[in-house]
Amino acid sequence: MTLPVVETARAKVNLALHVLGRRADGYHEIDSAVAFTEAGDVLTVLAEQGSGLRLSVSGPFAGDVPTGEDNLVCKAHALLSQCLNLPAMTVRLEKNLPVAAGIGGGSADAAAAIRAMLRAAGASLPPDTLNAIALKLGADVPVCLRQQACRMQGIGEILSALPHLPAPALVLVNPGVPCETASVFSVLGLARGQVHGSGLPPDTADKWRNDLTEPAIRIQPVIGEVLGLMRQQEKLTAVRMSGSGSTCFGLAASLDDAQEAARELRMLQPGWWVLASRLS
Asked: How far apart are CA 76 and CA 167, in angstroms?
């Protein structure tokens, strides 16, 4: 057993999210281009007496995070414990990413917990077992487990390499309101078996889109204000919403350009969460 173990749960950004339709079983088929920022939550695993898991949460968004069995870190521990004899551990989660924000905060935490707990136990699992555990925790957890740029298809379980990113940096902006994924898909309103849209264009990112934008704006109209303000920034391109919202992004030609745009946005809206980061 090697402790302490530290893992960063980097923010996930859906550079595109095309909804292809809704399956007969109720799940939505998607085609998404996913990348990750350098910044994220920080998860630390420490030794604990006795057995089981003790979770504590700190950081600017700690108040929005449940610490009981519903927390995805706790759920990850429970599922791994069915496959491995995990040591007793304390997990300290530094919550730097906003919650219910479309950037995979909870999913990234769950994936970081899996990586950290395996390292703490000095153990490994077959890839198929690991992916099955990740998918049980949520559709975004498999890609967050990889924490590399991917094309994500199916309901999130089909991952392939995304060799070229459309930009090296970006700005993320969250207006401080949650946007629950289930509610956004409900507003999208697809019936079981209904076809919706086309997949990612094979040769260009110019026609990438996020099909959940309009439903999310209906739930949280301020998302439209975020997109409008970001589109006024000369240093930002391809301004879109990530995931099911409410975080929006704008791509930048360099980290310097991203930081300049972020400074301007903080001045215009000091109450919003704004982050400039490299993209990978």
From this structure: 33
Q: Is 208:15 a contact under the CB 8 Å cutoff?
A: yes
Beta 89-94 vs 150-154: how paired, if at all?
Answer: unpaired
CA gap 115, 146 in Å, rounded = 10
Strand ranges in the chain using DSSP code E only, listed in sequence order = 5-22, 28-47, 53-58, 89-94, 150-154, 158-161, 169-174, 237-241, 248-252, 273-278
Q: 100-154: per-residue pLDDT in tens?
A: 999 999 999 999 999 999 999 999 999 999 999 999 999 999 999 999 999 999 9
Instruction: Encode pLDDT of 211-259 as tens digits.
Output: 999 999 999 999 999 999 999 999 999 999 999 999 999 999 999 999 9
Return the active site residues: 12, 140
Region of poorest pLDDT, from 49-58, 229-238, 250-259, 271-280? 49-58
Are 202 and 162 contacting, i.e. CB atoms less than 8 angstroms apart?
Answer: no
Helices (H), 23-137: 72-81, 105-121, 127-137
**Beta-sheet strands, E only, within 120-262:** 150-154, 158-161, 169-174, 237-241, 248-252
Q: Which token pair is 158?
A: 């089909």
CATH numbers and ranges of domains, the chain = 5-161 (3.30.230.10), 169-278 (3.30.70.890)
